[in-house]
Write a structure and sequence with these properties.
mainly alpha
Length: 428
């Protein structure tokens, strides 16, 4: 079980966790160290270890940051920034509510990266010195995205229940498979409760500045009309690519920001030197490195090893509520180091098998695993695409954000387990 490869990846995981928590090295350096060690130890070859740099998500994030940096110099965004800088107290809460009202519907139709990349443009217009500073608010938006992504049975939410069923359908009969509204029923109340928590306690998140070309965003100067036309044309083309991703395909929609950056350079709206500076920022190295580590955990069996640890803890003849709590906690831990789908892939079959063996409601346990894999994926930068953006863009330290994230996760899990027992009783 503990092969050489597993031991190495576990050691790298420990190094990554300590590094991310203490921030003794830049996030990007931690990610690249893991990539280099994977090659030196022969676990990955060079193309595999550094495949994160050619990932569609990495390219899209990097280029969206470039677009965001230049959009801040346009007249409408400059006026918006001036208006927002005067908002304090209740006005600040009103602003956050407005951003939530935009984020929730976008989270149903777009992937995390696409949704948050668009909202990053608005977050950067905020005043660094106010209570609703960019780093703090963008972190909140990333957390909200984790709680609301695919929550309604529309857009991406329609596919979520089918993807979950595919992970365990060979173990159960059709009566134990999820329906299109099951994830909505079990997750809507935790999402609402989490939203209220975010509104009341967002000040627990440390104030930080967003990573990137801050001067480009904060220094509002009137641009030539020609430049503004190009900038807004790029923005709407990129946004349209995200909105019609299903029709265009992920390759086209993810490469649209890169095409937009090239247009900004060709039309001399943005100097190539600034573009290079942003594209080589610490966050981009971090994004690429985290994707490689997640893949290494899956390919070496480390994720499966963690999943089997759940069965060891459960022991023989555990109570239904105990089983549900253990799976919820393990899904939360795993999803913060493995991908959302990786966590579901490991735990859903184990959850279904455990429920069948104990005469429990299979739907109840599987729903808790699936919901927890998305609701709570923001404690660590490795938790999700949204978490990578939250910590990398805002330069947040996970230890310092835990006074906000840990109480929220506890609240989400308690609410989730209560809802599961109400709508899908464990011994129905």
């Amino acid at each position: 079980m503990f092969t050489r490869e597993v031991i190495i990846v576990l050691c790298l995981l420990l190094f990554m966790v300590v590094g991310l928590l203490t921030h003794f090295l830049p996030y990007g350096v931690i990610g690249m160290t893991c990539c280099v060690v994977l090659v030196l130890t022969g676990i990955n070859d060079i193309p595999t270890a550094f495949a994160g740099f050619s990932s569609g998500n990495t390219i899209m994030i990097a280029c969206m940051i470039v677009v965001a940096s230049v959009l801040g110099n346009t007249r409408p965004m400059g006026k918006l920034r001036e208006s927002l800088s005067h908002l304090q107290g209740k006005s600040g809460i009103f602003l956050i509510l407005m951003l939530f009202a935009i984020l929730i519907p976008l989270s149903q139709f777009m992937g995390q990266m696409a949704c948050l990349s668009i909202l990053l443009l608005f977050a950067q217009t905020l005043d660094d010195e106010s209570e609703i500073c960019p780093g703090r608010i963008f972190f909140i938006l990333c957390v909200m995205n984790c709680m609301w992504v695919s929550r309604f049975p529309i857009g991406m939410g329609v596919a979520m229940y089918g993807m979950t069923n595919s992970l365990y359908e060979g173990l159960v009969g059709p009566e134990d498979l999820l329906g299109i509204y099951d994830l909505f029923r079990i997750g809507i109340i935790p999402s609402i409760v989490g939203t209220i928590y975010c509104l009341l306690f967002y000040r627990l998140i440390p104030k930080t500045k967003i990573t990137g070309d801050q001067n480009a965003v904060k220094s509002y100067e009137k641009l030539p009309i020609k430049d503004e036309i190009v900038i807004w044309a790029v923005f709407f083309a990129v946004t349209g690519g995200f909105a019609f991703q299903k029709q265009l395909g992920s390759n086209i929609s993810n490469i649209m920001p890169a095409a937009g950056v090239l247009a900004l350079i060709i039309f001399k709206v943005l100097p190539a030197e600034k573009v290079v500076k942003i594209l080589t920022s610490d966050m981009i190295w971090m994004v690429a490195g985290m994707q490689t580590m997640s893949a290494a955990m899956a390919s070496t069996g480390v994720g499966e090893l963690i999943g089997k640890g759940v069965l060891t803890i459960l022991g023989s003849n555990p109570s239904g509520l105990f089983v549900m709590v253990v799976f919820a906690v393990f899904a939360t831990i795993m999803t913060n180091f493995l991908s959302n789908f990786g966590t579901m892939g490991v735990l859903c079959p184990i959850a279904a098998s455990t429920a069948l063996a104990g005469g429990m409601n299979v739907k109840s346990i599987v729903l808790v695993v699936t919901a927890a894999s998305w609701l709570t994926a923001f404690i660590m930068p490795t938790g999700s695409s949204g978490a990578i953006m939250a910590y990398g863009t805002g330069n947040h330290n996970p230890l310092k954000t835990m006074k906000f994230t840990l109480p929220l996760v506890a609240l989400l899990l308690v609410t989730l387990i209560i809802c599961a027992n109400i709508f899908y009783p464990i011994y129905s």
